[in-house]
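C-alpha cells incoming
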C-alpha cells in the first residue's frame, strides 16, 4: 500500500494517545488495489485506524490541570505562551491529528471504488468516520474551528505545500462536519457486535453517545456564552437518542460502581472501550499503566503518583446525599471519612482505610506521620491515594502487566450528559431521574422524599451546579474534570487565587507506644478522635492558581502559522483575528 504523510502546513494537536490494543494486519506487503478489494485486508486497515486513534488511560500530567490532584502546571501558573503546547502536527508525521486524519481520508476515498459489498463498505467506513470525528473534535475543543480536510493530500513538493495552505473553517462548520460523520456512523454501525472478538469496536450507541458529548460541549458556556436555546435542544435530542439506542441494546449501569472496571467483554456500562490484556505466553503485551502508576509504590512496582487533593475529598456528599457543607449533613471534619457517599471509599484511599489490595481483603493503609517522619516507605504528598480502578486481586509482581480496559465513555457519563442537556432545555424532571438513578446505584440513601439527598426544588442554575458536582464525584480521575471546568468556564471561580490542598495527619504524643503494632485492630473512629491530628497542607507553594481567559481557546503554534500563512490566530493571542465562537 502506498504510504502518505500529511502536509507540514497543517496544524494538529492531541491530548490523547494510543496503545497497540487491536491486532493489526501488516499491510506493507500488499498494493492498494488488493487492500480495498479484500475484506480482511480492508478490515486490517480499519484496525490500524483503531490502533492509531483509541484513547488511553488518563495520565498524571493531564489530571494535574484540575482540582483532582496536585502538581505544577503552566496553565495554573498563568505563563502559557503561543508555543507552550508542543504536541501539534506541523511536520511530516503520521502520528499527529492531521497525519491520522490523512490515513482516515485515504481509506474513505479509496474504499468506495473497491469491490466489496455496499454493506461491508458502509460498516467499515462508519468505524473510520467515527475516528475522523474524534480527531477533529480533539482539535476543535482546544482551538475552535480548524481547516477541514476531507481528501488525502500528497504532502510532497511545493505544489503539495500550496494545496495544503487551507484557511480555518469556522467552529460551527467544524461541528457540522463532526456531526455529519457521526450520523453516518450511527446509521451504519451495529448496536452490538455479535462476535466477542469484536469487543471494543465502535457501536451505533458509542457514536450516538459521542455525538451527545460533543453537542453538550457546544451548548456549554465556553462555546455558547449567550445560552442559545437551539444549542441545548440539539444536545438534548442527541443525548436522548444515545440513551434510547444504548438502553434498547442492553447497556445500563453496572451493578457495582467499584467492580465495573474489571468486567471486560459485554460489560453493560462500557459504551466506548480501549482493550488491554495481561501478557500470556506469546500474546502481544498490551498493558495499561494506570494501576502501576497510581497505587502506593510499596503495593506494586512503581506508583503513588495520582494523589487526590483535599478539595476532591470534600466534594463527595454524605451517605444521605447532602453535601458536607449543607445544614444537617452531619459531617465531622475530624472523622471526614465517616458516613460518606459509598463512592468515596471506592475512589479515595485514606489514612486507616481498609483497602482490599494485593489479594488481601483486610489491608489497612496508614499515611500518618510520627515526629515529622512518615510511617510509609514513601509518603503521599496529599495524605491520600486514588483507589478507583485499582485491581484488588493483582499480586505486586503482576501490577506492571495490568490489563484493565480503559472505558472512555461509561453509560453513567451518557446519563449525566443527558441530565445536563435536559436541564438546558428546562426539563428538570428528566435531569432528576438520571441523577437519582446514579445515586441509587452508588448506595446513597433515598430519603423520605426519594430524591437521594438532592434539593427537590432546584432552579435551572442550581441543577446545572448539582450535575457538575455529580460529575466531579462519579467521573473522578477519569479525565473529564479538566474539560468540565473549561467548558463551563469555571477555572476562575473554582481555582483562581487559591492553592490546591492536602493534609498531613500526625500521630499525637498521647498515642500508646505500641500503637503501630495495635493499630490494625483498633476502631478507626477512636483512633482519629484520640490520636490523630489533621493539619491542612498547601500543595501550590510557588504560586496561586492563575488560569487566564485566553486559555479557553488555545493559541495555534507559531510554526503552524508560519507554515500556512492562510491560518489566523485566535482572538486573545498576539495578532489574533479568528473568532472561535462563530
Amino acid at each position: 500500500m502506498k504510504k502518505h504523510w500529511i502536509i507540514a502546513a497543517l496544524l494538529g494537536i492531541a491530548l490523547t494517545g494510543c496503545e497497540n490494543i487491536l491486532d493489526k494486519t501488516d499491510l506493507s506487503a500488499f498494493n492498494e488495489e488488493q487492500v480495498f478489494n479484500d475484506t480482511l485486508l480492508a478490515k486490517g486497515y480499519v484496525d490500524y485506524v483503531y490502533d492509531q486513534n483509541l484513547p488511553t488511560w488518563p495520565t498524571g500530567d493531564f489530571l494535574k490541570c484540575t482540582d483532582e490532584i496536585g502538581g505544577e502546571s503552566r496553565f495554573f501558573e498563568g505563563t502559557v505562551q503561543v508555543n507552550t503546547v508542543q504536541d501539534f502536527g506541523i511536520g511530516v508525521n503520521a502520528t499527529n491529528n492531521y497525519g491520522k486524519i490523512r490515513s482516515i481520508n485515504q481509506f474513505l476515498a479509496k474504499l468506495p471504488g473497491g469491490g466489496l459489498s455496499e454493506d461491508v463498505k458502509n460498516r467499515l467506513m462508519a468505524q473510520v468516520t467515527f475516528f475522523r470525528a474524534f480527531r477533529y473534535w480533539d482539535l476543535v475543543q482546544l482551538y475552535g474551528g480548524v481547516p477541514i480536510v476531507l481528501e488525502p493530500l500528497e504532502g510532497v513538493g511545493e505544489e503539495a505545500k500550496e494545496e495544503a495552505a487551507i484557511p480555518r473553517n469556522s467552529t460551527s462548520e467544524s461541528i457540522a462536519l463532526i456531526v455529519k460523520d457521526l450520523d453516518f456512523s450511527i446509521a451504519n454501525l451495529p448496536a452490538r457486535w455479535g462476535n466477542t472478538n469484536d469487543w471494543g469496536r465502535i457501536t451505533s450507541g458509542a457514536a450516538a453517545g459521542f455525538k451527545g458529548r460533543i453537542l453538550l460541549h457546544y451548548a456549554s458556556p465556553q462555546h455558547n456564552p449567550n445560552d442559545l436555546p437551539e444549542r441545548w435542544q440539539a444536545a438534548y435530542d442527541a443525548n436522548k437518542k444515545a440513551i434510547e439506542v444504548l438502553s434498547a441494546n442492553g447497556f445500563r449501569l453496572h451493578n457495582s460502581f467499584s467492580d465495573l472496571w474489571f468486567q471486560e467483554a459485554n460489560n453493560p456500562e462500557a459504551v466506548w472501550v480501549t482493550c488491554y490484556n495481561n501478557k500470556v505466553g506469546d500474546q502481544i503485551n498490551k498493558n495499561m499503566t494506570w494501576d502501576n502508576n497510581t497505587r502506593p509504590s510499596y503495593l506494586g512496582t512503581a506508583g503513588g503518583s495520582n494523589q487526590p487533593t483535599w478539595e476532591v475529598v470534600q466534594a463527595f456528599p454524605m451517605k444521605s446525599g447532602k453535601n458536607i457543607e449543607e445544614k444537617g449533613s452531619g459531617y465531622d471534619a475530624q472523622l471526614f471519612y465517616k458516613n460518606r457517599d459509598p463512592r468515596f471509599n471506592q475512589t479515595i484511599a485514606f489514612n486507616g482505610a481498609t483497602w482490599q489490595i494485593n489479594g488481601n481483603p483486610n489491608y489497612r493503609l496508614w499515611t500518618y506521620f510520627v515526629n515529622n517522619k512518615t510511617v510509609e516507605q514513601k509518603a503521599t504528598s496529599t495524605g491520600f491515594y486514588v483507589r478507583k480502578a485499582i485491581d484488588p486481586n493483582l499480586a505486586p509482581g503482576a501490577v506492571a502487566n495490568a490489563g484493565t480496559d480503559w472505558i472512555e465513555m461509561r453509560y453513567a457519563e451518557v446519563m449525566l450528559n443527558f441530565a445536563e442537556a435536559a436541564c438546558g432545555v428546562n426539563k428538570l424532571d428528566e435531569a432528576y431521574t438520571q441523577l437519582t438513578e446514579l445515586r441509587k446505584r452508588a448506595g446513597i440513601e433515598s430519603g423520605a422524599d426519594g430524591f437521594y439527598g438532592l434539593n427537590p426544588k432546584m432552579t435551572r442554575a442550581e441543577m446545572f451546579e448539582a450535575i457538575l458536582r455529580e460529575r466531579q464525584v462519579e467521573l473522578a480521575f477519569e479525565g473529564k474534570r479538566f474539560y468540565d471546568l473549561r467548558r463551563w468556564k469555571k477555572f476562575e471561580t473554582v481555582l483562581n487565587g487559591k492553592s490546591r490542598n492536602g493534609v498531613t495527619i500526625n500521630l499525637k504524643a498521647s498515642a500508646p507506644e505500641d500503637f503501630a503494632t495495635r493499630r490494625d485492630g483498633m476502631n478507626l473512629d477512636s483512633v482519629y478522635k484520640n490520636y490523630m491530628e489533621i493539619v491542612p497542607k498547601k500543595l501550590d507553594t510557588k504560586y496561586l492558581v492563575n488560569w487566564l481567559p485566553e486559555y479557553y481557546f488555545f493559541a495555534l503554534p507559531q510554526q503552524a502559522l508560519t507554515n500556512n500563512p492562510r491560518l489566523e490566530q485566535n482572538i486573545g493571542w498576539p495578532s489574533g483575528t479568528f473568532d472561535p465562537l462563530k
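note: The first strand starts at residue 270 and ends at 274.
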